[in-house]
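Q: I have 71 residues here and want to know how they pack in 3D. Can you give me a structure?
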Amino acid sequence: MKAAVTENGVVIPKKLLKGVKEVEIQKEDNKISVIPILTKDTLLKLGTHPVICGITDASEKHDKYLYGADS
């Protein structure tokens, strides 16, 4: 895809940025990168809504309860 550079810069078609709210623009030598910034890092939310199940060793032996594996 080619795009014209105007006095205001370059317009990136919105269809290429579907679901993206913010990007980081980096320039390295002759290469310009547009990198989507993830607004929701689901890993950071891990454990924010724990389930109470009455098992006292679930965090230590999670493989046993999730996969039936003895460890």
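Q: Anything worth noting?
A: The helical segments are 62-67. The longest strand covers residues 23-28.
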